[in-house]
Amino acid sequence: MHVWQPLLDWWFGADGSATEVSAARHGLWFGKRDSQDREAEVRFGALVEQALAGELHGWADDPQGWLAQLILLDQLPRMIFRDTPRAFAGDSLARPLLRSGLDRGWDRRLTPIQRVFAYLVFEHAEDLSLQDRAVELFADLLNEATAAERPLFASFLDFAERHQRVIARFGRFPHRNVILGRTSTDEEQAFLREPGSRF
């Protein structure tokens, strides 16, 4: 068993269709539960620290290892370090890692639901060109989806487009301002009072 397999097993659960996997794991992926955050830290906190230190040599030479490294840099810090600046500590490392894997075609070696968690790296970027690329990638997923799975991938594309619109408008995610010690503009403060303004 590869060293990254327990992480992927935890993140994606049992094999199944994208819709089945998403239904079973949605609460882990997008819920905000202290118990899940603690479990992530206990089980994978040491690997996250290694990823942040650039110590996971060779992982990106395998599509599954590449995906696992992206999850360690992009997803797990948002759980383990929730509501602190370190939640975003892996972003600057995840973006070039994603680019290099895309250049190698690694994403095409993943299942569609796994590809979501590669492409989310660009969706999390405070950079409009990367947001545009995220929308393109999620649109590709939707176009390739079976009829039964189109609603799921349409929802992922919708979220990508919502992120893109925020960055097009503000150049950053206003909901991160307090955590990162940034001063919100009056327009951002008004936006943050709107429903759905926080991801």
From TrEMBL:
Coiled coil regions, renumbered to chain: none
Q: Domain of life of the organism in this record?
A: Bacteria
Origin organism of this chain? Pseudomonas chaetocerotis
Output the InterPro entries linked to this UniProt entry: DUF924, TPR-like_helical_dom_sf
One family name in Pfam for this protein: DUF924
Q: Supply the name of the protein.
A: DUF924 domain-containing protein
